[in-house]
Amino acid sequence: QVQLVESGGGLVQAGGSLRLSCAASGRTYSRMGWFRQAPGKEREFVASITWNGATIYYADSVKGRFTISRDNAKNTVYLQMNSLQPEDTAVYYCAAGSSWSIRGQGTQVTVSA
Question: Which residues of the chain have pLDDT under 50?
Fold first, then answer.
């Protein structure tokens, strides 16, 4: 059974950093990504990466602050988040598959002012 399990969320002050991890089991995906959903808002794309790291995309709101990477030996994708701001507060989800149909349960990130 395919599973994506996120970890690494938490509470941090503005300007701080967190690193999220997403461990995939069941298979290796050619493309994996991160999404987030803040209270009262729609889920939004954050970043994605292909299996060889050759193609990476970021949402404009996180460019220059967030870095996505993956370790294929561990079947894990990471999201290094620096210079966090209160507007980054959200549940962060790992996703994979066509149309991002495979999703984890999410990890809460809260940034205090």
Answer: none
